[in-house]
Specification:
Layout (H helix, E strand, L loop, with lengths): L1 E2 L4 E6 L8 E3 L2 E5 L3 E6 L11 E2 L27 E5 L4 E7 L3 E11 L3
Parallel strand pairs: 1-4, 2-5, 4-9
Antiparallel strand pairs: 2-3, 5-7, 6-8, 8-9
Bound molecules: copper (II) ion (CU).
Length: 113
Amino acid sequence: MANCPDPCVVELVSDGGGGEDSFSPPSISINLGQTVTWTYADPSVGRPHTVTSGACPGGTCVPDGEFDSGFADLLDTTGEMFMHTFTVAGTFPYHCGVHLEDMQGTVTVLPAP
Ligand SMILES: [Cu+2]
């Protein structure tokens, strides 16, 4: 797992860059109180994504309400961002509401030293 610097940025990308729909990097760890900024960096401009908390057990994604960029304003424009500040330690799985189990990530919030 990559330790994310502060400010911490996770990019939303897809096959336009030769890869797959993904959060890059998919798994990060941060310190308690740190903010994560998800930035649309998908070369396939117009391919929409969301950042939605919740795991996908058995391939079915279940939003858990911790954070959600939502469907009202899909992330589909270069540089568009969604931010969330993590104030509780723990492991927070999330997914894209469009690509579901094919596009997942995890934020691990380290406890205060
Ligand atoms: Cu997506």
